[in-house]
Write a structure and sequence with these properties.
47% helix, 583 residues, 13 strands, alpha/beta, flat, three-stranded antiparallel β-sheet
């Protein structure tokens, strides 16, 4: 029988006072900003909040377990994990077994903030994660949109609020401090709202007040058994029936409960954080690390299947963890040295055979840098890059069986070098061939800027560019020159504008530059930049030759000819590198 648990405000107070906590078997907070916005809209529309499952942990039991706090100020890079709480000796607590995501969502929305990475910014750029708080537009229409959303909740930073002069954004967290609804009307008057706007805003704020402070929305079922095995079993049965909790989350939950010497949760999360900070930043997940654990520990199947979650397998994973961790760090360092990062690594799973190889042969710490391993690194780089170029997607369907087969190949043939030929034979028998046809080359020639395959292709075409430092994929003819307005001013006929804009974003107009050179180039015409950068004609000619630029025109007039001629030269270069039979 479900029990009443009070208001949202009361639940937040219990979270703040550490009466509500999260058991170690719980996963991390995974909701995105739009999910939190939708939850608050649902609450305002009067939809059910859902029931909760609480585990009442008695004072004499609480000190035996590890508990975590709820996320408050979420930062995608720096603070994405639930904070660990000190051991709670002789202190009764309520551990949340079901409902963590919803409670964390209201905790963030009403007390905290979110900082998500902005597109087109590096992970190691602190400005890529602006701090945003949940706001409610008090002047928005309350007509349902196409998704059924009625109330306009948005995570916004202060700058976005200041720029939006058409809306009236209320910081949702302010409602917690309101003790009387009449105070809301006074606040709106002080904000210089009047007439119909004042009445509409007051009605909306009053509704928000009652949703948070008055309505009894929390209902829960209480589990009082103190046996952690029973609680774990309840948790798994509760979550494994649907898609709400992934099997990787279940694996982490069981590892947390069964590892004896290592804190699994802390270790795995800290490793995810560490590898994501390598180089210019990656976006690898807990799933990636856990699948690597299954693969590198030689557990029979690499898949996230319940039968893989045995105690014996978890003990094996714990026993091998230090070596697994070292191999994964080395693998990501290697990928970073190839120039890959979170924006250019098209498929994370492509790193797993490399990780297994480095683990299997016990690669030394200097593997990434030592000249002794240069040939091996080039072999790995070529295989990885070509696997990421395939339009069909090597690392999609049938992934677990492919990884298991590649592991077997590396076991037999990977004692001293990466067995590229043997690996590709196995991939070919599974319909994952790394051979390219002339039609596939044609597809690569029209890759557009922003396609995740672009970097992989450029790194094959121009291997002389130093990818260990910051680099850029840059337009030869600056894209800023290809707006419709500027093209018209340059005398380009109207019926040619669309075609020029398309060509400007295709492979023949893209080059790979080191960061400093790109910053110096900016919006310059390529001929002007080349003359300034390389005053000596022979140096200029050398640059054009190695980058396959040919004769660079000094204005937009020669762009189409430049594009088409470079495309044909690149076709020959790609066909040669990928050993394409054009017969």
């Amino acid at each position: 029988m479900y029990k009443p648990g009070g208001t949202i405000a009361a639940a937040l107070d219990k979270i703040q006072r550490k009466n509500y906590v999260l058991p170690a078997i719980q996963r991390e907070f995974v909701w995105k900003p739009d999910q939190i916005e939708r939850l608050f809209d649902s609450l305002m529309q009067g939809y059910p909040f859902g029931t909760f499952l609480f585990w009442t942990v008695k004072p004499e039991t609480s000190g035996k377990f590890k508990f975590y706090d709820f996320v408050l100020n979420y930062h995608q890079r720096d603070s994405a994990h639930c904070p660990e709480l000190p051991i709670l000796h002789n202190q009764p607590v309520t551990a949340v077994l079901d409902g963590q995501q919803r409670l964390t969502a209201i905790n963030i929305g009403l007390r905290g903030s979110m900082a998500m990475k902005q597109p087109n910014k590096w992970w190691n750029n602190p400005d890529a994660f602006p701090k945003k708080m949940l706001r409610l537009n008090l002047l928005a229409s309350i007509e349902p949109d196409e998704d059924g959303m009625v109330y306009e909740f948005k995570f916004l930073d202060d700058t976005q609020v200041e720029r939006d002069e058409k809306s009236f954004w209320y910081k949702v967290s302010d409602i917690l401090a309101v003790s009387d609804v009449t105070d809301l009307n006074d606040w709106l008057v002080d904000a210089e709202l009047s007439g119909g706007k004042l009445k509409a805003a007051f009605r909306m704020l009053t509704k928000l007040y009652h949703v948070i402070h008055t309505n009894q929305l929390i209902y829960y079922y209480e589990e009082e058994e103190q046996d952690v095995e029973r609680v774990l079993n309840i948790f798994i049965r509760l979550n494994s029936g649907g898609t709400v909790l992934s099997y990787s989350d279940l694996l982490l939950s069981i590892a947390v409960a069964q590892w004896k010497k290592i804190d699994a949760r802390s270790e795995i999360h800290s490793l995810v954080d560490e590898i994501n900070r390598i180089g210019t930043g990656f976006a690898l997940s807990q799933d990636f690390v856990l699948k690597a654990g299954l693969m590198l520990s030689d557990i029979a199947s690499v898949g996230f299947k319940v039968e893989n979650f045995t105690q014996a397998n978890m003990e094996k994973l714990e026993e091998n963890w230090p070596e697994i961790r070292a191999a994964l760090v080395r693998t990501v360092e290697l990928a970073s040295s190839f120039g890959f990062n979170g924006q250019t690594l098209r498929a994370d799973s492509a790193l797993l055979p490399i990780a297994y190889y480095l683990y299997h042969r016990n690669a030394p710490p200097n593997f990434v840098l030592s000249s002794q391993f240069e040939d091996d690194r080039q072999s790995i780089q070529s295989w990885l890059t070509r696997s990421l170029l395939k339009a069909s997607g090597i690392w999609g369907s049938g992934l677990d069986t492919l990884l298991t087969a590649l592991r077997e190949v590396i076991q037999k043939n990977g004692n001293s070098e990466f067995p590229t030929a043997k690996i590709e034979q196995v991939m070919d028998t599974r319909g994952k061939s790394l051979s390219f046809s002339s039609a596939e080359v044609d597809d690569l020639l029209v890759l557009r800027y922003g396609d995740k395959r672009m970097f992989a292709l450029l790194s094959l075409l121009f291997p002389f560019v130093n990818l260990r430092n910051q680099f850029h994929m840059d337009h030869v003819f600056p894209i800023s020159r290809f707006t419709a307005t500027k093209l018209r001013k340059s005398g380009v006929p109207e019926d040619q504008i669309e075609d020029l804009v398309t060509k400007a974003n295709e492979l023949p107009n893209i080059q790979l530059l080191e960061g400093v050179a790109n910053m110096e180039k900016r919006d310059s015409w390529p001929a002007d930049w080349l003359t300034k950068q390389y005053p000596n004609a022979s140096d200029r000619q050398h640059y054009c030759t190695i980058h396959d630029l040919g004769i660079v025109p000094d204005s937009i007039d020669g762009f189409v000819a430049f594009h088409d001629k470079r495309r044909e030269r690149l076709r020959d270069r790609i066909s040669s590198i990928l050993a394409v039979d054009n017969a």
